[in-house]
Amino acid sequence: MTDDQLSTTFAALADPTRRAILTRLAEGEATVNELAEPFPVSLQAISKHLKVLERAGLITRGRDAQWRPCRLEAAPLETASSWIDTQRQVWNHRLDQLDQHLKSLARTSKET
Amino acid sequence: MPDDTATITTTGTDDDLGEVTITRDFDFPREMLFAAFFDPEQLTHFWGPPGISTPVDKITIDARPGGVFATTMVDDASGAEYPNEGVFVEIVEPERFSWKEPSGMVTSSTLTDLGGGRTRLVIHQTNVPAMYRSAEALEGFNASLTRMAEYLATRPS
After folding, report:
1. Structure confidence by residue, pLDDT tens digits, A2-31
2. By C-alpha distance, which of B119, B126, B80, B26 is closest to A94?
3. Searching chain B, which residue's CA lies closest to the CA of residue A99?
4. How far apart are CA A32 and CA A50, in angstroms?
């Protein structure tokens, strides 16, 4: 996934209503009406949120024009949630290697 | 033996600045640590994550405020190249240095003399871009991720 895609995913996740929609979809497919029910906002507003989520690849929608159930897509979320972990691993490994490098430098300077 | 209990503190929500802090103690004087970051011949030995090399001929270190700090990480298996370029913001030998990436993220390193030839290195990343910061907001979302994975596993394909 490129940074651009990642940034689209995160932009989509930045909104609490959209996160709530995704949480609901983690329990199974749902229609727009079902998704809108818990929120004090219009169906149009929910549809707009769904479009953002769809563009970000976080959900897909059925083809049936009447029903068009929404379903969650896993891959973008998994990539998004791993960034901090990756950063942690990169720096810890880097500092491990730095320590090893300095030890070998110290050994070399003792020998010469 | 250096203190291996590196701590990572991540703070921040959607509304404030994300930060990442990594602390590590070394049994080496800070002059040695400082020099390692500014010498391509040394940086090449420790910069790359597992399976990734940072060839010395693809490292540019112009050690002055406004100078370029560029590295290219090369995937050992595929040969894919990942260039990174930053600009040094501050260099105070041997106490601290920082660079800023085009995303706005600033990585500051502070070297504190612990006495007896020991040094504490603190890496502090600030202005972590929104796209990275939101990852932290996601931590509270992990329970949902687990449920989602369970759901996807049971879904007929």
Report:
1. 556 666 776 787 677 887 888 788 778 899
2. B26
3. B26
4. 8
DSSP A30: B
The answer to whether B148 contacts A26, with C-beta atoms less than 8 Å apart, is: yes
Interface test mutation site (partner A, options B144, B146, B155, max chain A beta carbons within 10 A): B144
Calpha distance B108→B124 (Å, rounded): 5
**What one-character-per-residue DSSP string does B68-120 give?**
EEEEEEEETTT--EEEEEEEEEEEETTTEEEEE-TTS-EEEEEEEEEETTEEE
Closest CA to B143 of A34, A50, A26, A56: A26
Report the residue from B138, B152, B155 with minimal CB separation from A81: B138
Which residues in chain B are contacts of A78 at CB distance < 8 A?
A: 145
Q: What number is the ipTM of this complex?
A: 0.71
A-interface mutation test, from B138, B147, B155, most A Cβ less than 10 A away: B138
